[in-house]
């Protein structure tokens, strides 16, 4: 039972990060039908921008409180990713909206490699230690189950952000415009919606979520690297497909489910394979799930958002 509860906690932590990143994928797909494979690299940019800010603040004001330093780091990382998301949409994707689907897909892959290369030039190839501004001292709420304050912060923070996003999309004027653009952007434009602005804001919001997820991911593992966004981005895409890409609730559910499956798989893989595999092979579960979902339920757990075209 202790192992089960521990892996449950670990899965919720990882799944919360996957869900935040998956929301960026699913929002863009819901409006444009585009898989932005460069979205995972925004996670890396957010983490590296926050790291650079932390190092600067430590050098200038070494006595600053960890909470203030984390807040200022997020205040830098989020706008950086938002501006980058807007630039990507404006320069790389806007001209390709009416192009064959293969063109924006190849462009997205190219943007991913471009961002990784620029990050490697700026921060180098080495792994960087990410400051632990939130305590990592383990607590033991249940005998044999250890939880750290950073894990609690990740789970609670992700839940609050996802709830805020649902309210934004379902209860606000901007959300109505986003849903109208997703239904049919040409008809929405005829009704007075600035579809170019709405699409750009969708990229910007998704980039902000990726920045927060990047800081969470780096804080949880204590490292940052120019290539750190590739695997979480790929798994978040798997989570979006698992839940039903284009469906916000599906992205959240898919992220949490994928995190739990990966965590339980890592915890029990040696028993399942009689020692043939160990926990370092945990990534295989994400891609096994992706394959099974594409074969047996291509629309995902909650179904892909499919609209009736006017």
Automatic annotation (TrEMBL):
It is a multi-pass membrane protein. It is found in: Cell membrane. Coiled coil: none annotated. Keywords: Amino-acid transport, Cell inner membrane, Cell membrane, Membrane, Transmembrane, Transmembrane helix, Transport. The chain crosses the membrane at residues 12-35, 67-86, 102-123, 143-169, 196-217, 237-261, 273-296. Belongs to the binding-protein-dependent transport system permease family. LivHM subfamily. PANTHER family: BRANCHED-CHAIN AMINO ACID TRANSPORT SYSTEM PERMEASE PROTEIN LIVH, HIGH-AFFINITY BRANCHED-CHAIN AMINO ACID TRANSPORT SYSTEM PERMEASE PROTEIN LIVH. This is Branched-chain amino acid ABC transporter permease.
């Amino acid at each position: 039972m202790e192992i089960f509860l521990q892996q449950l906690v670990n899965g919720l932590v990882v799944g919360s990060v996957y869900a935040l990143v998956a929301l960026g994928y699913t929002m863009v797909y819901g409006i444009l039908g585009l898989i932005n494979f460069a979205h995972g690299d925004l996670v890396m940019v957010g983490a590296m921008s926050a790291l650079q800010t932390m190092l600067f603040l430590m050098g200038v004001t070494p006595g600053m409180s960890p909470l203030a330093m984390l807040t200022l780091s997020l205040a830098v990382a989020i706008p950086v990713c938002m501006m980058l998301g807007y630039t990507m949409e404006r320069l790389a994707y806007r001209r390709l909206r009416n192009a064959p689907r293969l063109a924006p897909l190849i462009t997205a892959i190219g943007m991913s490699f471009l961002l990784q290369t620029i990050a490697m030039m700026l921060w180098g190839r080495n792994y960087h230690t990410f400051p632990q501004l939130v305590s990592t001292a383990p607590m033991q709420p249940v005998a044999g189950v250890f939880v750290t304050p950073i894990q609690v912060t990740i789970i609670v923070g992700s839940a609050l952000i996802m709830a805020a996003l649902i309210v934004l999309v379902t209860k606000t004027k901007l959300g109505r415009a986003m849903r109208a653009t997703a239904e049919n952007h040409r008809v929405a434009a005829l009704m007075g919606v600035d579809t170019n602005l709405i699409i750009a804001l969708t990229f910007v919001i998704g980039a902000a979520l990726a920045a927060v997820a990047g800081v969470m991911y780096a804080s949880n593992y204590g490292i940052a690297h120019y290539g750190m966004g590739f695997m979480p981005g790929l798994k978040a895409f798997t989570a979006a497909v698992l839940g039903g890409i284009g469906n916000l609730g599906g992205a959240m559910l898919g992220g949490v489910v994928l995190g739990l499956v990966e965590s339980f798989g890592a915890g029990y893989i040696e028993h399942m394979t009689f020692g043939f595999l160990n926990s370092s092979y945990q990534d295989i579960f994400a891609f096994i799930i992706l394959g099974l979902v594409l074969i047996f339920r291509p629309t995902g757990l909650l179904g892909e958002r499919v609209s009736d075209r006017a």
